[in-house]
Write a structure and sequence with these properties.
CATH class of the largest domain: Alpha Beta
Bound molecules: zinc ion
Strand content: 25-35%
Largest sheet: 8 strands, mixed
Number of domains: 2
Number of helices: 10
CATH superfamily of the largest domain: Medium-chain alcohol dehydrogenases, catalytic domain
Shape: globular
Order of helices and strands: EEEHEEEHEEHEHEHEHEHEHEHEHE
Number of strands: 16
Distance between the termini: 17 Å
Length: 374
Amino acid sequence: MSIRAAVMQRPGEITVETFPRPATDAHSLLLQICEVGVCGSDRHMYLGHANVRFPLIPGHEMVGTVVERGTAIEDRMAVLGGQVKVGDRVTVVPSSRPCGKCWYCLHVPHKPALCMSRTIYGFRTCTEPPHLFGAFAEFMAVHAHSWVFKIPDSLPPDRVVLIEPAAVATRAVERALGVGIPHIGEGYGIGKRIVVAGAGPIGVLVAAVLRSTGAGLIVVTDAVESRLDLARKMGADETLNITRTSSEERAARIRELTDGVGADVVIECAGVPAAFLESLQLARRGGRVVELGHYTDSGEVPVRPHQVCQKDLDVLGCWSYPPMQFQTAMDFLARTPVPVERMITHRMAIQDLKPAIEMLAQPGVMKVVLTPGR
Ligand SMILES: [Zn+2]
Ligand SMILES: [Zn+2]
């Protein structure tokens, strides 16, 4: 039996190729992919912004059904949520387990995303067997160093494909949490006033997480009105269209809403260099900026370092998330009253990856989900 997969040969070129069905050993799984979200980082990879080795099968926001399982997967794999049997629905953390031996694993073990020898599903070349390291495929080969989460029945089926982006969004909000006594007023907490720059899938999920965790005021900025509409449905109190307001007008409005001081926290989700600059401007003195959007390198912007210094600003990078963030994401998706599933605007077939990626920036398009199994 041959397996079809969408292969990115190089930036701008995607073909559908067939691969042999991989053999499953004692420590691996074979997953039939049911749903997989198309991510902004897939688009950046397509545009040549990602430092990866081609050809590769992209796709890292996957939901699948176990069709084959090794006899001793639990020996090496991290399997969470109960025993995994053939026929079970699972999701897999894109990153492999940290090696435990590199400098970062030894010195910064609480940030496993910094491990130097991890591999990532959807970002790894498909030249070596078993080839199927990405989810824009009918099947994916799950190796022994994976984190596999069984999907609980409590999770609404139309939200399951949002687990990975919800892991990104919950981690970004947790990144901004104040440490220790809330009274000192640092970072994120109940009642805080937040700006989210960018209303793409991650931006609106961040807004939803903020709404579900007690934010006081949530203001979302973007250039596309339909995205801002969705942001309001996801919990934004106010939105600012960057094509209809100047940077000064936005800063003035944020000050107006915040006793004249600016936002406690700004979370940059646009992945546009100018949005990072504006985030530094919108944060109040003693505030915090979380840079989440630039997972790939989309360029540079001139920064005035004095502003960071004078504001006594905390500027925090947010790189991926620890694997257990999937549990946080599932708990959030199971319980949030925000209708997060409404961000899924399109469902397409696996051979449509190229048009799916190309339409991502268009108005009216938010999360596109491919359904290879159908
Ligand atoms: Zn993603
Ligand atoms: Zn390591």
